[in-house]
Amino acid sequence: MIAFLSGRVASRGGGTAVVDVGGVGITVHCTPATLARLRVGEHTTVATSLVVREDSLTLFGFGDDDERDVFERLQTASGVGPRLALAMLAVHTPDALRRAVAAEDTGALTQVPGIGKKGAQRIVLELKDRLGAPAGDDQPPAPDRAAAPASLPWRPQVVSGLVNLGWSTRDAEAAADAVAAEAGEEPDVAVLLRSALRRLSRA
């Protein structure tokens, strides 16, 4: 198993990043939040999980070991493959997923594209004793709606993340515009992306 990659970020975009490790460019599939933390040209370390199929070897990258471990445990539920597990971590943090499963909050799980009510019920049933207890309160602070959003350097990242999760460009752009008021002076791309996903899921 490849537990992590450490090297220079050669490129990123389209849901993937390429990390230059000793002169070899390795592609990793990441959540939008993880991609948002990577800077082209800078050194990085990402926790990884290797998914082996008959016709492919796919490496997934995460911001920390906990996110990687939850990604792997999510796939122990029937019907949850790596792509759906990645989408779940794009919408919810690891602790938010733990809380949703522990509280049998199927509504939170159905915010993830590709998960319906029956699928959410199955995930709760099968993962209730596997994800563990939440490590802490990871709820984002209430947005300062009075703060005027600055220029929007985060907008392309949010739109790209939504499109990679299956939404149309038109819907993704509309959702990004809808959460602009939540950006504040120092926008957190991961928080804005999750807010945009919740808006789209309610639509």
TrEMBL record:
Key words, A-Z: Cytoplasm, DNA damage, DNA recombination, DNA repair, DNA-binding
Region named Disordered: 132-151
Biological processes per GO annotation: DNA recombination; DNA repair
Job of this protein: The RuvA-RuvB-RuvC complex processes Holliday junction (HJ) DNA during genetic recombination and DNA repair, while the RuvA-RuvB complex plays an important role in the rescue of blocked DNA replication forks via replication fork reversal (RFR). RuvA specifically binds to HJ cruciform DNA, conferring on it an open structure. The RuvB hexamer acts as an ATP-dependent pump, pulling dsDNA into and through the RuvAB complex. HJ branch migration allows RuvC to scan DNA until it finds its consensus sequence, where it cleaves and resolves the cruciform DNA.
Family according to the record: Belongs to the RuvA family.
GO cellular component, one term: Holliday junction resolvase complex
NCBIfam families in the record: ruvA
Parts forming coiled coils: none
Region (Domain III): 157-203
Protein name: Holliday junction branch migration complex subunit RuvA
Methyltransferase as UniProt keyword: no
Gene: ruvA
Keyword 4Fe-4S: no
